[in-house]
TrEMBL record:
This is Phage portal protein. It comes from Paenibacillus zeirhizosphaerae.
Length: 411
């Protein structure tokens, strides 16, 4: 496996380590676990919507100096833009990472980099970023007290890294000191599981009821006392008569009476099913219009602010903290996750945005075209602005000139 070979080379030569001492006295050993709820189609659809939308993000290495942002040319931006590793595009990388985070409440990304200390400070050249899915995670300390993390995989291999060099994403990071999820460092889905079990039981009931309802078409009443064998023989005789009745007329003798059963039975009301489904949607912060793709601008904006934006902010903080040294952070380096391709605005809203921002001179011609889905044009970097606006610093001067002019005309 390419990934295993890379990790084996990268993790080689690590220092001896002992168990990390947790404050609650427990052992820092955690197994990845998150398969109980994911057989549900509603759960998978919710996660898929979030992962698909987040895969539109465009991560960039930016540098901010004196309130001006620039995107440096370099190896890191090339990885973030085209593909963090040889196995994935950027969209695939983000989607896989989201699925792992939503399923396990923990996701791990291993940066592969070369360090250069020739200038007296560490300078890193990144070669790849790999999302991994370990079956078990241990937290250790080396002899100097530095925190280490050891990953175990189903193939029987394990790797140890400095925890500071690992991008560890956590969902519902609460009672456990190191891991997201519940106290054991695993997904805490007990409340959701109850809803899904109820929904599954009702669905099974519907399936069984539908089969019974389709199978029983009528009741044959036999007007004589018969033993079991005779009843079976009479039922078989009746069935053969039904199957052979080409004309639709069923001949019967005086001892048989057939009553038709109409198949029109309702078992679960619509409100109950809607309540169960809505409980699952609320758990993931996905509304029904978002799930079906029939949302308005306002509904998508609410979905973005409630569910997606916290992840966008969190990714920026986490990736910046791990990928840059303290010195690099001090001089304004960070990873920004731009969401410009989360194009949720309707055509009317886009035109209104172009009008408002265009009049203020905030968009180039090509940016306006991009909002409408058109390709750039030669010379499209031109910025135009409406003459109906004035610099606030010139307002007083402009008004005084007009006042002076008005006085002169009156004289």
């Amino acid at each position: 496996m390419i990934l295993m070979d890379v990790l084996r080379r990268w993790a080689g030569g690590r220092r001896e380590a002992k168990w990390f001492q947790m404050m609650n006295g427990g052992l820092p050993i955690f197994s990845q676990f998150g398969t109980n709820i994911y057989a549900s189609d509603i759960v998978q659809n919710c996660i898929n919507v979030i992962a698909t939308e987040m895969s539109k993000l465009q991560p960039r290495h930016i540098r901010t100096r004196e309130n001006e942002q620039a995107i440096p040319n370099g190896n890191l931006n090339r990885l973030l833009r085209f593909g963090p590793n040889p196995l994935m595009t950027t969209s695939e990388f983000i989607e896989k990472k989201l699925w792992l985070l939503m399923m396990n409440y923990n996701a791990f990304v291993i940066p592969i980099f070369d360090s250069d200390f020739s200038s007296g400070v560490e300078r890193r050249t990144y070669r790849a970023l790999y999302p991994i899915n370990p079956s078990r995670v241990d937290f250790l300390q080396d002899p100097t007290g530095e925190l280490m993390i050891q990953f175990y995989f189903p193939a029987g291999v394990n790797f140890t890294f400095r925890y500071a060099d690992v991008i560890h994403l956590r969902k519902k990071f609460s009672v456990n000191e190191m891991m997201g999820g519940g106290e054991a460092g695993q997904p805490d889905n007990a409340a959701l599981l109850k809803v899904l079990q109820t929904n599954h039981a009702l669905s099974q009931g519907l399936e069984r009821a539908a089969k019974i309802n389709a199978a029983i078409q009528g009741i044959l009443k036999i007007n004589t006392v018969m033993d079991d064998a005779t009843q079976r023989a009479e039922r078989d005789r009746f069935t053969k008569l039904v199957e052979s009745g080409d004309s639709g007329i069923l001949p019967m003798d005086l001892k048989g009476e057939f009553t038709q059963v109409k198949g029109d039975v309702k078992f679960i009301d619509k409100d109950t099913m809607a309540f169960l489904q809505q409980s699952v949607l609320n758990w993931f912060g996905v509304s029904l219009p978002i799930l079906t793709g029939e949302f308005t601008d306002e509904q998508y904006q609410a979905f973005y602010e409630k569910t997606l934006e916290p992840l966008v902010i969190y990714f920026g903080q986490k990736y910046s903290k791990v990928l840059f040294t303290e010195r690099e952070l001090d001089v304004g380096n960070e990873i920004a996750w731009y969401q410009r391709d989360m194009n949720f605005l309707s055509t009317t809203s886009k035109l209104n945005l172009i009008k408002t921002m265009g009049e203020q001179g905030l968009l180039t011609d090509n940016q306006k075209l991009a909002l409408l889905g058109y390709p750039p044009i030669p010379g499209g970097d031109r910025i135009t602005q409406s003459l109906n606006y004035i610099d606030v610093r010139l307002i007083n001067q402009y008004q005084m000139q007009n006042k002076t002019k008005a006085v002169s005309e009156d004289e």
